[in-house]
């Protein structure tokens, strides 16, 4: 039975890889204690995406070509050997220039170009402030989602007597939040035609809802130490053993460290997934919230 399950999982992973889906989404952690490392780091920033876009090469090349064309056109209009002069405030006569670029007096004054600096500063500050405001809005919205789930969990523990009713209400709430995140992340992707992807549930998303979280993370891809850190355990097993031994000698507590119970079962069943797939993907959070309210 275990061999059959392993072969089925291997076949499914190959199917995900063929579709361009990854088993786990990688997150990047920056060491804020090392400022120089953060400034020089490229992985996890926007630079890998920027260098693969055509705009960063097209518009500078277009600007350079237009400037050269304008200078050549101005030189051809003046005849290339114009003997006309311009007098300065000191009474000195200066030829209007010949050759490809012409004399400095025929170019745009640097004072006029200085007007672009305040405009650029205003544009950058305004754009960055809008980006920061949007980010903080999303951040606080995600916090409110997590807080609402925690509040509902406490209410269900206080008012619902049947353990099955408690679990149904909470798991539907968690699944609703996860489906919303899974659909939103697709909006940041671009398909082969260069268009934004639609919010939709992929096979890897449904697999995460149908499997226990530890199984979905795949034991061969994430170690027990990393898994326990993800679950929030502040100490390793070795540190926990040392602490338990010291507390047992000083206060008479249990001699062995307690079991770390952090196994989360699957949030949805196959029957529930079949029912959810009858609705559009962007309505899945609403359907799950309705199920949760019915359980309450």
Architecture overview:
The chain is mainly α and 296 residues long. The chain has a domain at 45-78. The protein has helices at residues 2-18, 35-40, 47-50, 55-77, 110-113, 116-159, 163-186, 203-210, 213-217, 224-230, 237-251, 270-276, 284-295, and strands at 85-87, 93-95. The protein has a two-stranded antiparallel ribbon with strand order 1-2. Helix 6 (116-159) runs antiparallel to helix 7.
Give a brief rundown of this model:
Helices cover 59% and strands 2% of the residues. It is mainly α and 296 residues long. It has a domain at 45-78.
Element layout with pairings:
Blueprint: H1 2-18, H2 35-40, H3 47-50, H4 55-77, E1 85-87, E2 93-95, H5 110-113, H6 116-159, H7 163-186, H8 203-210, H9 213-217, H10 224-230, H11 237-251, H12 270-276, H13 284-295
Helix pairs in contact: 6-7, 7-13
pLDDT averaged residue by residue: 78
Helix content: 55-70%
Distance between the termini: 37 Å
Q: Tell me, what's the shape?
A: elongated
- Strand order in the sheet with the most strands: 1-2
Order of helices and strands: HHHHEEHHHHHHHHH
Strand content: under 5%
Q: How many H/I helices?
A: 13
Report the structural category: mainly alpha
Our Rg estimate from Cα atoms comes to 32 Å
Query: What's the number of extended β-strand segments?
Result: 2
Largest sheet entry: 2 strands, antiparallel
Q: Enumerate the spans where pLDDT stays under 50 for 5 or more consecutive residues.
A: 21-26, 96-100
Question: Keyphrases for this structure?
Answer:
mainly alpha; 13 helices; 59% helix
């Amino acid at each position: 039975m275990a061999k059959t399950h392993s072969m089925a999982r291997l076949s499914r992973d190959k199917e995900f890889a063929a579709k361009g889906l990854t088993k786990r989404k990688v997150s990047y952690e920056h060491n804020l204690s090392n400022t120089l490392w953060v400034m020089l780091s490229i992985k996890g920033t926007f630079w890998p995406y920027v260098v693969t876009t055509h705009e960063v090469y097209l518009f500078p090349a277009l600007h350079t070509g237009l400037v050269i064309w304008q200078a050549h056109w101005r030189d051809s209009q003046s005849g290339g050997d114009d003997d006309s002069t311009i007098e300065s405030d000191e009474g000195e006569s200066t030829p209007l220039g010949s050759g490809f670029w012409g004399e400095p007096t025929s170019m745009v004054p640097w004072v006029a170009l200085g007007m672009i600096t305040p405009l650029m500063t205003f544009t950058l500050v305004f754009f960055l402030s809008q980006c920061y405001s949007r980010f903080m809005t999303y951040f606080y919205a995600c916090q409110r989602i997590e807080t609402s789930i925690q509040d509902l969990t406490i209410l269900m523990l206080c008012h619902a007597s049947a353990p099955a009713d408690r679990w149904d209400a909470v798991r539907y709430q968690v699944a609703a939040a996860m489906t919303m995140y899974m659909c939103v992340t697709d909006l940041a992707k671009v398909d082969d035609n260069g268009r934004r992807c639609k919010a939709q549930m992929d096979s890897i998303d449904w697999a995460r809802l149908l499997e226990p979280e530890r199984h979905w993370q795949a034991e061969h891809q994430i170690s027990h130490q990393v898994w326990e850190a993800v679950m929030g355990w502040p100490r390793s097993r070795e540190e926990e053993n040392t602490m338990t031994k010291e507390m047992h000698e000083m206060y008479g507590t249990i001699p062995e460290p307690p079991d770390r119970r952090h196994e989360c079962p699957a949030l949805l069943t196959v029957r529930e997934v079949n029912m959810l797939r009858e609705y559009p993907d962007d309505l899945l959070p609403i359907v799950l919230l309705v199920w949760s309210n019915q359980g309450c």
